[in-house]
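User: Could you check the structure of this?
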Amino acid sequence: MAKLSFQQTCISLPNGAQGVLAQAPHLTRAHVSIAIAAGYLDEPRTLPGLAHLLEHVLTTAPLEAFSNISLLTWFSQHQGSLNAHTDDYVTDVHFSIPAETLEAAALTVASQLARPAFSPSVICAEVAAIDAERQTRQHSSAMQRLSAIATLSDPQHIGAGCRHGNAQTLGSDMALLLEALTAFHRDHYHGGRVSIAIISPWATETVTHLIKRMATLFSPPTPSAPSLAITPRWSRQLSAKVASTGNTVELLWPLPSAIARHQLIALSGLADSIQQGYLVEQFPDSITDYRATLAPSGATDTFSLTLSGTATQEQVEALAAALGERLAAFCATLLGTAPNDHDIVWQPPAETLQLAPAWFARARRQALARRFVTPPPEHQPGASPFAANNARWLLDNASPSPSPPAFDRQPAAYPAVQRWCGQYGVSDDFAALATTAWAACFVPGAVIVPSPLTAQRLALQDIVFKQENSPHGSWVIAMGSQANHAMVALLEDAVLAVSKAQEGLLAQQLIQRLTPLPATPAVWVSHQAELDTISQALAALTCRSLTTTAGNTPRAAPSAADTQPANVAIMRTLILPGSPAQRWLLAAAEKYHSATFFQQARYEHRLGYVAAVRRGDGAPCSLGYVVQTSNGVQSSAGTVSAGEKRIEEKLISITNAIWQTPDKILQAQLPALIPPETPLAALVLQWQSLLAGTHQPLHRLGQQPIDSPALTQLLSQISTLGHWQTHWLDSAGHYFVSD
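Assistant: Sure, the predicted structure tokens are below.
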């Protein structure tokens, strides 16, 4: 199976900035990351959360050239997307944009990061947003993990304290915060800490010139600028417990504070090798999955191995020693090598759907490499990071779940299975798919639980495996020369489990409801020969009783303490039958309405710290306008509070107003065709279209000219065929929908 790879070009500039670029001629959008080597662990001790606040302010403050437009708004208006992320040692702003708009977008973002204009009103609003984020996420597994990691730090290290920020740690003195943000920006947002990464269809020479223009906007470092060096932070404590509902163990091997760039590259390659099945035979039967990561979030100065399943602390200690010895032996030859050019080609991971997330993760890792002091050429690496007794580990405190029981009887009749066979045009997206086999299966209302280490074992057979779970169903897909046989084996060994309790923002959970899923099992295969066999195996799986499995224990009802203050997500949806023209209309509306809705919902009406427009594509098609608030508007099951009713009324008012858009403006916003960026993405897009009731993903419909009378007629269907609903979901798990 052919793998994507892209040549890279690296640039070093006089002001200390660094750049890397890759050309991908098949892209229609460019993906850009501007990473700053500064993060949580660079903040003043007196203001935890300052780096996070600066990230927020940079993306929401007005641009110098547009007094009422922020970066987020600018990208919404130009059919792009922008986000930012603050981690231990790196903050990055990353975006995707149509290739023809790359130059304007890149210079706009670089200018804002290099020379922002801070506003007390924006600072105040973003402190409130950060506080609301903390309230929503404070009981999540990610925050519990961060807290556990902090206990493993040296008590004198800043990493032993808060690293997210909230209203209490940041305070209410806007003059003080303005001064602190200005100083933090001056000390850290300069050329000596800037790394720019661009992958686009543009020629190398053109992008090189653009990166140089972007970099010159940043000042060179001052003589008094803080050092880039990473201070060792790990104490002698070797383990900590994480309160969670799953059963996982995370092993952390701290990296040396001085390590050469090519050695980090070797460690990154080691993580990729482990993902592809290396070490798969080393784990006991109780381990069901694992993931290796260089520089994981929250512990970016470590090599991490996360194990899912059950294990006692004694087993973990023995496993850590055995794995450390094996990894040390594998890594010894790589860490002792001299610098070379084996990093000039970027090959995204096999399971990559879109290039952007993989490219942004790579850019963050390259920016992190600047934080490690590069030894002189004659330096020889010291002790391996995998030396004995160097591992730390995080253990959850959940009770082990019983293994799924065996089933020895089947009902007389199998359920009906929807079936599709053939390419459905995916070979037009990627010619490599014309000769590649695949198989995909879907089960409604349950989670498919494969046998242990399925993804890694399939990777050893050069088969890519991907799974997606939601409360409404679960699907798996396998791609590779023996994918059909692998899928049969997977289904025969799998069990079904109840849907896992969701985490993350309530708004994201509501948005998942936009796309309909079938009420019966479904299969899609590339070749007719295995269709019946796979359909029978899926039918047999769905006949088995649901069981509670490790990592999928239903969450108990939240206590009063868990739901104070209450968080509520409210979404106003528009549903249309799903004709091609209607799908295009909602895609255009999503792009055009995003900036206006964000501005009105978040700032003018202050409906919540989340405000977004999202689309569900298929037949029917849908558009959702969602907000999330933590203003204490809590309701009981099946009821709507007065506060929620006021938010609904505001949502109705805003959506009614923005649908009065003049025809010519909406017509100009018809979305550009955005084809999938990888073969796996092409398969997943087609598979999701089949599940959503249509045979054609939006990008393959073709953009038909829509004149003003046709658009007027199409808009009239909003009132005749459109169905509006309001959805509520609160932090206690209460869900309610009304017309």
